[in-house]
Design brief:
mainly beta; four-stranded antiparallel beta sheet; 1 helix; 11 strands; 50% strand; globular
Length: 107
Amino acid sequence: LYGNGDIVVFEHKKGNKNISLIKRIEAAEGDTVEAKGEKLYINGEEKEGYKCEEEFEYVLGKDEYFVLGDNADESTDSRVFGIVNKSQIKARAVIKVFPLNDIKILL
C-alpha cells in the first residue's frame, strides 16, 4: 500500500498526546537502515545530508517504515523516534499545494 518516496501523514505520540506528522517514506519492508559515525545509510548507501546523533540499525519487517522529513537539519523523524508502523499511518499525500506557484499531483 505504501512505498519508498510516498509522503504520509501518521500519528506520533508526543508526551501524553498524539500529534500528526507528515514525512516521506525512505525505507520499507526488507530494507536495512543504519546510523554510524553520524551518517545515515539505507541498504548500505549513504543518505546525503542526513546526520544522526545516535547509532542504530533497523531491518524493517512487514508493515514497518523509516520516514524522513525533507528539511534534514530541522526534521524530527525516524532518526529520532524510530520505526513507523502501518497502523499509525492515516493518509498518503496526493496533492502538493505549497508553495502556491508549484502545485502538483503526487500520484
